[in-house]
Amino acid sequence: MKALYNISIFFYSVLIKLVAPFNLKASQINNGRKQTFAGIKAIINHDRPIIWVHCASLGEFEQGRPVIEAIKRTHPEYQIFLTFFSPSGYEIRKNYELADYIFYLPADTKRNAQKLIELVRPELIFFVKYEFWFHYINELNKNNIPIYLFSAIFRKNQHFFKNTPWGKWYRKILSGFDHIFVQDEKSVELLNQIGIHQVIQVGDTRFDRVAEIALLGKNIPIVEKFKGDHQLVVAGSTWKPDEELLIQYIHSHPETKFIIAPHETKRSNVERLISLLKSQVICYTEATEESVMNKQVLIVDTIGLLSSIYKYADLAYIGGGFGVGIHNTLEAAIFGTPIIFGPNYLKFHEATSMVKLGIAFPVADYTTFQTTITNLLTDTQKRNSISNECITFTKQNIGATQKIIDKVFNNR
Description:
Layout: H1 2-19, H2 24-43, E1 50-55, H3 58-74, E2 79-84, H4 87-93, E3 101-104, H5 110-120, E4 124-128, H6 134-142, E5 147-152, H7 165-174, E6 179-182, H8 185-193, E7 199-201, H9 206-216, H10 221-227, E8 232-238, H11 240-252, E9 257-262, H12 267-276, E10 281-283, E11 297-299, H13 306-309, E12 315-318, H14 330-333, E13 339-341, H15 349-357, E14 360-362, H16 366-378, H17 380-396, H18 400-410
Parallel strand pairs: 1-2, 1-4, 2-3, 4-5, 5-6, 6-7, 8-9, 8-12, 9-11, 10-11, 12-13, 13-14
């Protein structure tokens, strides 16, 4: 199985190089990986011990961030070495001030793993949520470097739980972790069933992150002026299928204001949205407090604002549910905002929990979308009740970060 794994890593790396001239993300990964080893050699300093934190992408970074910040606050003697797999994480957070070193993770080969570990010499490593790189884990084990996985969640249909050669091989990877911190009790049960017992349920560190965002959330005068006395729907991290539903509703409900923060903020995508909207529309980067007041739609064509914008929403629509999966629902829930999203939400523990509690609402098509959004906007009493339950739900789930820090550092 290791041979098949190595072949798959090799061909993926070749594919990245072949596609790089024609695809921005592939180009960023390819160029970023090329610079990793030289970059480390140029700046690494071993005057203080190093903790390595690896996040696949931006979403995992938001889960990893509370742990990084807790380490810096309670154990400032450590340096943080932060790696990303995806450009959507690295390119946005490459200047993150609390990490001492930030790089792309080289492809998972034995040689790369040995070289990176030799250069960095980490005292321990944290993987965030879904990272199971065989050679890195294997070489870390050989060097007796503790490995922790946190904010993880497991499902029965994953490779680990299948009685196949591939599944059995992947189980061995899990045994390489010193401890696994999971989001829910079901994950504990699944891991225990295959002989993985170094596991504990602590919850999702994203709750800690969004609680901090809510506490420090900034006021945005342009959004305040835009909303005025109107009801406001904030649609975050949207894709084309999400926007098709939204635009149809916008055209038939001019009395409601909408903020759309598309997942892709490049100009061509923003212009596509503008062309589809017949209503009064303006982009955030072009708006003033005066010019937004008579507009129906505000397009957020920049990053870093969405989490603070949710506090102005009467209702939030979270994008991605008609694709591979929904984006961050907790950023809206922490402000007590009722939430709507598409049908592909079952992989997300917090989303399934909110649906069961009746504070988030999946929609499958325009008919259910229209009915759901109209009911929520017109029933103030129900919306206020949901808002209170959202806040209670998020507050009850805060605290995973401290549990992780206590377990890891109290044992050292």
